[in-house]
Amino acid sequence: MIHFKDIEIQDKPIVTAYTLDSPRLNCDLSFSNLCSWRFLYNTQFAVLDDFLLLKFWAEGELVYMMPIGSGRLKKPVLDALIDDAHRERSPFCLLGICADMCSELEALMPGRFRFTADRDYADYVYLRSDLATLAGKKFQPKRNHVNKFKRTYPDYEYTPITPDRIGECLALEAEWCKANDCEQQEGTGNERRALVYALEHFEELGLTGGILHVGGNIAAFTFGMPINRTTFGVHVEKADTNIEGAYAMINYEFANHIPEQYIYLNREEDLGIEGLRKAKLSYQPAIILEKYSACLKEEPVEHIKW
What's the confidence (pLDDT) of residue 222? Predict the structure, then answer.
């Protein structure tokens, strides 16, 4: 029997001991995401046979993540998860499954899983060097935005997010939310709750961020944390839309301030939002990391979304 517990900030060393050494690029594995969104997903974790196990409730349905450990998944670990779902009287489904994980599950239990892709939940993964240099013809429009911003606001300043700057970020988030009717939109309201939690526990979560100032006032901020040793997750980016080019500039500056050990930047999903998809594609992702749900065939369920 697996003994799951609710994930809490103090569990960061245990969880990241597995995620940081994993080759997986999924934004779902960022500790900040796991902890900041637990209010919505009732996130729990356990360790079994040197594998990290993650358990959620998505839209009221029980789901799991692919176990995280060194080497290929062991059949007894997968069997233990399936038994846990049965004890919960729930069908067994895994979310956030990438193509290589589909092959791994198929090898362990041939023909037993039904795999369903959802493009809306694919991660956009970029080369950090691309976003930091904007070199080449394909990035000419982005370079133009950055150069125009520098000409328009020559006094701009980029600084790291420190505890004394959190209040500024919260104030900009409140203004952004007011302009975008957050309280009337469930998804945006949930995002705001997770964002505020992350800012209020910034250092404890191990987040890194940056603020853009124009004329001494905050124009944009962004933050994230490592997903693994080579991939940095960018979780949030907010800007004053009255300041033209603020989004392009905070993106550019943050990419330049992330340590060079990180080859990739994961800027998460587009959630099927047309404008967001267009914006993410415009930055020329190196990888569109498609993710699947994997459910046991004999246990029919509706397709589950985050």
Answer: 98
Q: Is the Cβ–Cβ distance between 86 and 93 less than 8 Å?
A: no
Work out the pLDDT band at 306, boundaries 50, 70, 90: very low
**Any idea which of 111-125, 181-195, 206-220, 256-270 has the lowest mean pLDDT?**
181-195
DSSP state string for the chain: ----EE--GGGHHHHHHHHTTS----GGG-HHHHHHTHHHH--EEEEETTEEEEEEEETTEEEEEPPEESSSPPHHHHHHHHHHHHHTT---EEEEE-HHHHHHHHHHSTT-EEEEE-GGG-EEEEEHHHHHH--SGGGHHHHHHHHHHHHH-TT-EEEE--GGGHHHHHHHHHHHHHHTTGGG-HHHHHHHHHHHHHHHTHHHHT-EEEEEEETTEEEEEEEEEESSSSEEEEEEEEE-TTSTTHHHHHHHHHHHHS-TT--EEE----TT-HHHHHHHHHT--SEEE--EEEEETTS--PPP--
Instruction: Provide the edge-to-edge strand list for the sheet that holds 264-266.
Output: 157-160, 208-214, 217-226, 231-239, 264-266, 123-127, 287-289
Which amino acid appears at position 56 of this protein?
F
pLDDT of residue 185: 61
Give per-residue pLDDT as tens, 129-161. 999 999 999 999 999 999 999 999 999 999 999
What pLDDT, on the 0 to 100 scale, is given for residue 181? Answer: 73
Predicted local confidence at residue 187, as pLDDT: 64
Question: What is the pTM for the complete model shown?
Answer: 0.93
Question: For residues 274 and 171, is the Cβ–Cβ distance under 8 A?
Answer: no
Place of tokens 């960018």: 234
